[in-house]
Amino acid sequence: QVQLVESGGGLVQPGGSLRLHCAASGIILSSYATRWYRQAPGKQREYVAVINSIGTTNYRDSVKGRFTISRDNAKNTVYLQMNSLKPEDMAVYYCNVAVGEVGYWGQGTQVTVSS
Question: 50, 51, 88, 97: least surrounded by Cβ within 10 Å?
Fold first, then answer.
């Protein structure tokens, strides 16, 4: 019913950029908040950014000024533009939508930052 699919990950050098996509079906993203999380090997999953139903955004401190979350309502897709990437940004990135007490997750997309 509800499906979230992340894409856009890949291999990038430090200082490079990637744009991640979270494409949704079975749910209208503009009715909810969408969050990006990431999980590095051996680490807990951590919050990265959020955009709410009216377009208000917020970010964890370590990505402020480098990452931008946005939404295209016509495409029902949320994006995460990542600039000035650092090795510590390397992780699997997931999008999440909470509908009441139910959380929906995508399968994740791998971001590798290496020289």
Answer: 88
CB 18 within 8 A of CB 111: yes
What are the CA-CA distances from residue 63 to residues 27, 37, 60 (Å)?
27, 12, 6
* 9-62 per-position pLDDT tens digit: 999 999 999 999 999 999 999 999 999 999 999 999 999 999 999 999 999 999
DSSP secondary structure letters along 17-79: -EEEEEEEESS-GGGS-EEEEEE-TTS--EEEEEE-TT--EEE-GGGTTTEEEEEETTTTEEE
φ/ψ of 31, rounded to 5, equals -90, -5
Q: How far is CA 93 from CA 46, 54, 62, 74, 82, in A?
A: 10, 23, 15, 23, 11
